[in-house]
Amino acid sequence: MSSPLPRKTLLERLQQAPSGGAWDLVVIGGGATGLGVALDAAVRGLSVALVESHDFGSGTSSRATKLVHGGVRYLAQGNISLVREALHERTRLLANAPHVAQRLPFVMPGYHWWERGFYGAGLKAYDALAGSQGLGATEWLSTRRTLELMPGANPRGLWGGVRYWDGQFDDARLAVLLARTAAARGALVLNHCAAESLLREGGHVCGVQVRCRETGSAAVLRSRCVVNATGVWVDAVRDMDQDPATGAAPPPRAPASALVAPSQGVHLIVDRSFMPGLHALLVPKTADGRVLFAVPWLGKTILGTTDTPRPDLPREPQAFADEVNFILREAGRYLARAPQRSDVRSVWVGLRPLVKPPSDDTGNTKALSREHTVLVGASGLVTVTGGKWTTYRAMAEDVLAQCMTAGLLPQRPGGATVKLPLLGAAPGRPLAEPPGEHLYGSEAALLNSLPGAQRWLWRDAESGQGALSEAMVRFAVRFEMARTVEDVLARRSRLLFLDAAEAARQADAVAELLEEELQADGAGAAPTARAQTDTAAFKALAAQYQNLP
Ligand SMILES: Cc1cc2nc3c(=O)[nH]c(=O)nc-3n(C[C@H](O)[C@H](O)[C@H](O)COP(=O)(O)OP(=O)(O)OC[C@H]3O[C@@H](n4cnc5c(N)ncnc54)[C@H](O)[C@@H]3O)c2cc1C
Q1: DSSP label of 335
Q2: Model confidence, pTM
Q3: Pocket lining: 36 vs ligand 1, CB cutoff 6 Å
Q4: Which one of 118, 178, 283, 417 is least enclosed by Cβ atoms within 10 Å?
Q5: How far apart are CA 498 and CA 515, in angstroms?
Q6: Which residue has the higher pLDDT, 357 or 210?
Q7: How many angstroms does the Cα of residue 142 sit away from the middle of ligand 1?
Q8: How far is the CA of 171 from the centre of ligand 1 (A)?
Q9: CB-ligand 1 contact for 313 (6 Å cutoff)
Q10: 52 C-alpha to ligand 1 centroid (Å)
């Protein structure tokens, strides 16, 4: 594939709408939702620009539990339509991005005599809902077989288990792939560029003013349709949608009129040795009625998660002490070796953009729907939020259908992304294994043609395999639009999420390579000062990911 355009050229092109002075569509927000909309619109031949204030996937979309799933617990809540749609989307995602999304076997262990039969029956219903899209049949397991498949499970009091199949993925790499595939299809996608205000004419939204966070320069994008896909931050963009006739700042939003009720989810990463093997563990009901996952991912084990209402909207939310205690305590009950605080290699937190019914003031986010909502405002601003990563593609179709129904976009047939391989799509190795060139799919040859393909900055300690090479850093800048140390170490490589102390140790080496590559891209003045600030900021962030409350 050809190199993407230098950032300077992209910034210039932002202002030059392809036809008649206006883009068909401007998308605000480069997470799963916005990127899905931009890709679908571009494939349908519409002119599209997308701006992301930070990095692609840097909001909620890099902090998922990494499951491509129908949602066993939503089935238990009786949300059949959500589960059925997600099961179908699961198959499509695995087919379109096989290098970063694969099927994964799960074991539900039983610690009461009735659990194996009870949960097995529920999971058979899950299989039935998936129908021909199923990834493998649910099986009842003996105690011996459960321990063979899950050698890390606690054998005390075990009454067998149930095996079923779902999927897992690398969320941040998928976000970057969506951005790159959209760009390859003609969309202009730009990270580190924030929407600051909306343009209005005759009461209608007709564009967006944006500002590049690197250069500080502003640009005005005129557009027929504007989609607000800013996740938990959608209400801030809705607040920009004010009538310029009055010029008044919008009054503070009453909590009941906010669309989103954010809910925090915490994940802890521990070594693979706590749960060796290729199976994930799901406890559907912990002692206090919550769900616990232990998922093998990129050579480590993810433990999580929580569901805690969080009305403030920090970019980098921190875990609460009782969330960490809950995860460690429950993991200790279900794993043969109980992880301690000192075993945690990284703690990361995401905010779920749960859609709040206007009348709901209970603060109970567990009961809120995981379905998405699309609102077309009186001014024509289209807001989409909620849903899950697994259903991003179907959400995008829904958003574009509603834009077309409202007359904001020309009619174009849907279904364009059902069978649309993303860049590099080629069968990959299991995602439970440490990271490596297999995550690049058919682009591995391009990766290996870059300088430093065999110079390993970081090797996975347990397997000894090379996991981050000099060439991967160069690839991140040249082809994956990485601009900062954090972009490289948090989302192109996932080292910050896997081992925060190791990520901090790699920051200087990555910064040096990054600056070399960015200078070739014409990144601008004072590269050394920029690199120092960037590295210091990253090390502070890595310290946050290492520190448990
Ligand atoms: C703990 C947790 C676990 C989860 N696990 C799973 C899972 O296993 N499987 C699954 O399918 N789903 C999962 N989800 C859900 C899934 O991650 C989210 O539904 C999805 O990532 C939301 O994507 P989004 O694009 O709507 O939001 P985001 O990813 O937050 O994207 C919004 C973007 O908008 C940008 N933005 C904000 N303001 C502006 C502005 N003014 N200008 C430009 N850009 C702006 C932000 O920087 C951000 O990148 C999980 C969520 C959480 C929190």
Answers
A1: B
A2: 0.96
A3: no
A4: 118
A5: 24
A6: 210
A7: 39
A8: 10
A9: no
A10: 12
